[in-house]
Amino acid sequence: MQSSDPDVRAALIEELVIPARRSGPTRATPRYKLTDEDYSLILERSLPGLAVHLPEQRQYSLMYEVAFLVKNCKVQGCDVGIAEFAGSPFPSVQRIALRNLIDMRSHAALPFLLPKLHGQDPGQLCDAIRDIVAVKGTEAGPRLEQILEHPDSDTRHWAAWALFQLDARTSAEKLYLTSIKDRQWNQINPYVLAVLIKWDDARTVPIAMRWLTDDALERRSTMRDRLLEVHAKTIQDALIKFLDTGEYEGRTAVANLNTKADAMRLLGAFGSTKAIPALRRLAADKDSTSQVAISQLGTLRAEEAIPDLLTILDTRSDTRLETTLALANIGHPSIVGRVIAELRKQSTGSHRIHVLEALTQAAAPKTYEKLRTTQVKSIDTMPAPEYFAQIAGKVGMTAQLSSAVTPKDREIVVVGQTGHTGLTALRHGVDAINYDGYDYALFLEEDRIHVLPVEEVFTRWDQWLKASRHQQ
């Protein structure tokens, strides 16, 4: 039963956390083992009406302990009580209470954030804009449109970013008028171009193509990165036309080898299957861009291009590495025998390891796809056997190192990194134990990961091919 005594309710919250002290714990810790739901319920019932009864220091200490629970226990449902502290007359309490609401992604923070958009200091404005996006404050749209005319370019950029993050498509025309109309193409923010292309504003496509076909690599790269950031895939039609004709929107572009190669890579990054016919044609050309076209056919897993790639493999030696890897990336079981035969002809090196990794999707497609798409968090630094077991466990699989992996290589400590999928984390581990050569590679069975010497991988593929022929 909830007490009406504010001292009792405040003491209950204070009891939940052991605060950091000079002579005690160096960081706050929970006093009890409660569930997130328990913490949420206690805060939800104890906080409302409490702020007005407490002095400044106790308000601040209480919000500090609430901050610990917000960050570590995923508390919910206590927004109203925390918002009362955000309205405290004491600035130090206001700040920490508002940060708690923002960290909770609570819409209750919005009334305290909207006034911050009316300042002029660029740093404070940008902070407020990011916080409004964090709490999905779509009501800020009209003020963000005004900030598009702020004298500071970074602030204008953050306003455009916020409008995109809030999916404020009704602001598209304002964005065009303030950021693009009557401006020189190279004075326009590429991010704004990318956003408006994402929102299907055809007027911006020629300007973006001017960036993408410029002689300067920095400009091409900047525009590419912004398009990928917002996944503005609708640019693909203009890119394909450029590859086919050297033109876009009736304008002749700079169709040199670099701009064509970058256009193909961007189509591959977008997963643009519409580009496959153009890439097949370009792969058959005998200039240096054909290597890029071949690689992107692999990136797009273009099974219809397999006959073309096999012909190229038969008739050209200058693209053998790219073609073998492209076939492996497509991963169709029909090409396994040919790819293995090519690898056996080639010298050892990282290329062979990468081809064997990609090819293994033919043997275990479900496992490969799960590894490719599953994000792996909190990877610890461990010796190789434990590292591979750790990754396998995080994706619900088992891992096995061959008994032929040397004791020296087993002792290698693999550094844990963030931002990995299951597949890239395994690749990182294989690269680590291949530190003084290219001796080991991956082989997959469904729900099982094997790290084997390369010759043992070849033996596994021989067995797989024999079993496949027997089944036929």
How would you explain this protein's 3D organization?
This protein has 472 residues and is mainly alpha-helical. Helices cover 58% and strands 7% of the residues. The protein has helices at 6-15, 36-46, 56-73, 79-86, 91-103, 110-113, 122-134, 141-147, 153-165, 172-179, 190-198, 205-212, 217-230, 236-245, 257-270, 276-284, 289-299, 306-315, 320-330, 336-345, 350-359, 365-373, 384-394, 407-410, 422-433, 454-471, and strands at 17-18, 29-30, 247-248, 251-252, 375-376, 382-383, 398-401, 413-414, 420-421, 440-445, 448-453. A three-stranded mixed beta sheet has the order 7-11-10. β10 (440-445) and β11 form a beta hairpin.
Keywords, separated by commas or semicolons:
472 residues; mainly alpha; three-stranded mixed beta sheet; single chain; two-stranded antiparallel sheet
Helix content: 55-70%
Distance between the termini: 72 Å
- Would you count the extended β strands for me? 11
Q: If helices are DSSP runs of H or I spanning 4 or more residues, what is the number of helices?
A: 26
* Oligomer class: single chain
Main sheet attributes: strand count, strand direction, barrel closure: 3 strands, mixed
Beta-strand percentage range:
5-15%
Low-confidence spans: none
Mean pLDDT: 92
Form type: flat
Helix/strand class: mainly alpha
Q: Which strand order do you get reading across the main beta sheet?
A: 7-11-10
Cα-atom radius of gyration: 29 Å
